[in-house]
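Sequence, please.
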């Protein structure tokens, strides 16, 4: 006896060890699963984020390229205005006449100076980037501007000269011997006298020669600009960066570096340019110079022929990448710690019920010494856990209504392929089926005529829920489910020994149900009963027979239940009464896809599957055509459109029936497409006034264009352009140009603003662009228009 007990104790010990090993394995399986679920998406995101980090620096370079390209456009616009100003001065008849004069301070030539100065343009009417401009006449050796007249020597000594000249003679030799050329000069340091004070400025100038018949003439026009004005147009310099600009001849025009406080010597600048040229492999490259690595951004201007260089320190470019990498590392670390803790917690929670099952199975095995079957052991374990674990029992009980509902749906649709399967499920869900007969009662509400509208759905749902609550209270051992469409199905079981009283007992139950719901709802509730079913597998037939009785209510309308009668004849299926409502909805909404599905359903359900007799098919065709006529009558078409559709129907009047069906369905699609196109036109008619109002309000925005307006109104550019042209008879850009010119006319007539200021107010960045647009619309330049209008008034 003791030996047997010792053997049993040893077996129990071995089982405990094995159980512990299984529990640990299950815990680790769950932990690894949760870690994989949490960390695999995190790893994918990390790899993607690392890839995105590699693109950040590239995006920064692209941003710098974009900034530089915008700045180049601004500089080119200013140079265009310099060129325009130089050309207008060179074409001035007073300037050309004065260039041939000598001894201009001798009588009677002095008044010519005043004539010339009065003919020159004022600076305040021009671009604010202009510092000043001067005309140098080599015959008279005079320097003239709008405000002053100097001899060469007076201009050098009393007004302004570059630091690079050793003295007046050096500068004079340059002015007399070197020919004037078109183009921009390098930025240099100038000595400048202002308000009797000597200051130093950094200036560059745009130069062009005067018109002259002499090949040896050195007369020229110089338009000056300060370095600060140029830098205002260029991008904000990068800390530690280098920037320079060269012309098409390779001459250095502008240079700036923020590496050291001392300015670079020319030799070092030449060394840098030479290294860039030697290592150049494309528009972008990296170079190492002076112990630093730089990213080179280059832009060539096709308008001015200038080339711009930006050298960005590599540590500045990578600064954003490193900061982003640090922040992402912190978040990844926090996510990893949180994921590990969460995985551990979920693993412990998930493995606990399984451990309970293993312990109970082990106890059962020890208790019955292995003589109980596996399924009996599992059943004993499950019952024990359900009895002792309230959470598990509650969870199982909460699922029972869903299981009973699913079982009811399978019964009424006959979804059983194995004999006895229905009885097994009924036992599991707690439905009594032994020694009973069954019957289906179909409840149907008649609250609303026709289809239930969307706004009536809440009331319908409330009625169905109220009915199901009463059923649960009166017959809790029954099965029931909602089918939607105002219908609830109830399955009742009656003991076989009372089979002869089946209808009476069912009617008594239905009367109790009616008494417990609101009278106003009860009088709209109809009940339809199927035949008695001996087995659960026959419930499907009982449900079908109850459904048929919806179409055969005659002589039973006053009964508590409209029962299925064996002699009842099945009603031929035919399109429902809401045919016009459904088709009219899709056509009037322009919903081509919905119309296609509805027509396909009608043809498939009532022609192909049911094989209707020819006379019913002809009735269906006539009804479809009648519905189409009524829809067309509501659309407000023109008389020609009506006749066109009627004529298309008459064409196939004597054709075979299937041809008439096809023609009628095609007409439905054509009318739907017509409604859809009209809807698009209507949408644009609603937006057209808003679009023009938006243009009238934002005409001064230089970025006003087709793309910006389309984005504002959430339209495609192609659609906006097409509809705009069809509505207003002109394209979008021409309309905007006309609006801007009309606004400019008002400014020219009613204000003293300069042409440059007006061009900016009406949305043009360059004055010459504004001048061309104004002349294109009015045939006059802005100045000519202002002069003409003021003379006429």
């Amino acid at each position: 006896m003791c030996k047997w007990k010792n053997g049993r104790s040893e077996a129990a010990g071995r089982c405990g060890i094995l159980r512990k090993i299984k529990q640990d394995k299950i815990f680790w399986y769950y932990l690894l699963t949760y870690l994989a679920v949490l960390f695999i998406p995190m790893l994918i995101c990390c790899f993607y984020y690392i890839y995105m980090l590699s693109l950040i620096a590239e995006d920064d370079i692209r941003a710098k390229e974009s900034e530089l390209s915008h700045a180049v456009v601004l500089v080119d616009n200013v140079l265009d205005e310099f060129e325009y100003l130089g050309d207008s001065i060179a074409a001035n008849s007073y300037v050309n006449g004065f260039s041939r004069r000598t001894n201009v301070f001798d009588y009677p030539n002095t008044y010519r100076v005043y004539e010339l100065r009065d003919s020159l343009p004022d600076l305040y009417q021009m671009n604010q980037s202009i510092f000043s401009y001067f005309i140098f006449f080599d015959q008279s050796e005079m320097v003239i501007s709008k405000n002053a007249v100097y001899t060469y020597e007076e201009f050098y000594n009393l007004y302004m000269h570059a630091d690079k000249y050793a003295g007046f003679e050096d500068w004079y030799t340059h002015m007399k011997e070197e020919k004037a050329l078109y183009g921009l000069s390098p930025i240099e340091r100038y000595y400048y006298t202002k308000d009797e004070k000597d200051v130093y400025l950094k200036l560059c100038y745009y130069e062009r020669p005067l018109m002259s018949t002499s090949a040896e003439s050195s007369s020229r026009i110089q338009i000056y600009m300060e370095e600060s004005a140029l830098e205002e147009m260029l991008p904000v310099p990068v800390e530690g960066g280098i920037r320079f600009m060269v012309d098409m001849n390779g001459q250095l025009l502008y240079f700036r570096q923020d590496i050291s406080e001392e300015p670079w010597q020319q030799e070092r600048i030449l060394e840098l340019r030479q290294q860039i040229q030697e290592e150049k492999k494309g528009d972008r490259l990296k170079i190492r110079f002076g112990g630093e690595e730089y990213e080179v951004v280059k832009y060539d201007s096709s308008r001015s022929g200038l080339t711009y260089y930006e050298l960005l320190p590599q540590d500045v470019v990578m600064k954003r990448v490193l900061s982003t990498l640090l922040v992402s590392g912190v978040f990844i670390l926090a996510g990893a710690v949180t994921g590990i803790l969460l995985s551990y917690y979920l693993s412990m929670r998930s493995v606990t019920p399984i451990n309970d099952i293993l312990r109970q199975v082990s106890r059962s095995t020890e208790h019955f010494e292995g003589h109980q079957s596996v399924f009996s052991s599992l059943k004993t374990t499950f019952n024990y856990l359900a009895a002792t674990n309230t959470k598990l029992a509650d969870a199982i009980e909460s699922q029972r209504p869903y299981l009973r509902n699913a079982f009811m749906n399978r019964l009424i649709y006959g979804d059983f392929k194995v004999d006895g399967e229905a009885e097994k499920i009924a036992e599991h869900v707690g439905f009594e089926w032994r020694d009973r007969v069954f019957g289906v009662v179909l409840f149907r509400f008649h609250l609303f005529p026709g289809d239930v509208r969307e706004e009536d759905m809440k009331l319908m749902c409330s009625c169905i829920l109220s009915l199901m609550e009463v059923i649960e209270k009166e017959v809790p051992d029954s099965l029931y489910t909602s089918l939607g469409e105002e219908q609830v199905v109830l399955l009742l079981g009656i003991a076989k020994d009372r089979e002869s009283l089946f209808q009476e007992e069912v009617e008594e139950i239905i009367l109790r149900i009616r008494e417990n719901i609101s009278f106003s709802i009860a009088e709209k509730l109809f009940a339809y009963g199927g035949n008695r079913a001996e087995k659960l597998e026959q419930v499907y037939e009982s449900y079908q027979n109850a459904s048929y009785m919806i179409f055969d209510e005659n002589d039973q309308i006053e009964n508590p239940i409209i029962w299925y009668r064996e002699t009842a004849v099945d009603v031929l299926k035919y399109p429902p009464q809401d045919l016009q409502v459904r088709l009219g909805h899709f056509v009037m909404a322009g919903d081509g896809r919905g119309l296609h599905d509805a027509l396909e359903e009608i043809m498939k359900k009532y022609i192909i599957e049911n094989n209707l007799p020819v006379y019913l098919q002809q009735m269906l065709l006539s009804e479809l055509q009648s519905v189409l006529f009524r829809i067309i009558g509501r659309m407000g078409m023109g008389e020609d459109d009506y006749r066109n559709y009627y004529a298309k129907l008459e064409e196939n009047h004597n054709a075979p029936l299937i041809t008439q069906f096809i023609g009628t369905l095609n007409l439905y699609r054509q009318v739907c497409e017509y409604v859809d196109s009209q809807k698009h036109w209507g949408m644009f008619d609603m937006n057209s006034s808003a679009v023009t109002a938006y243009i009238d309000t934002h005409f001064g925005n230089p970025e006003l264009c087709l793309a910006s307006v389309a984005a504002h109104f959430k339209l495609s550019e192609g659609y906006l352009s097409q509809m705009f042209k069809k509505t207003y008879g002109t394209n979008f850009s021409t309309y905007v140009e006309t609006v801007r010119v009309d606004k400019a006319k008002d400014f020219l007539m009613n204000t003293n603003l300069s042409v440059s200021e007006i061009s900016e107010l009406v949305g043009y960045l360059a004055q010459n662009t504004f001048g061309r647009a104004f002349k294109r619309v009015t045939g006059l330049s802005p100045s000519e228009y202002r002069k003409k209008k003021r003379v006429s008034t």
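Residues 1-8, 568-573, 682-686 have pLDDT under 50 and may be disordered.
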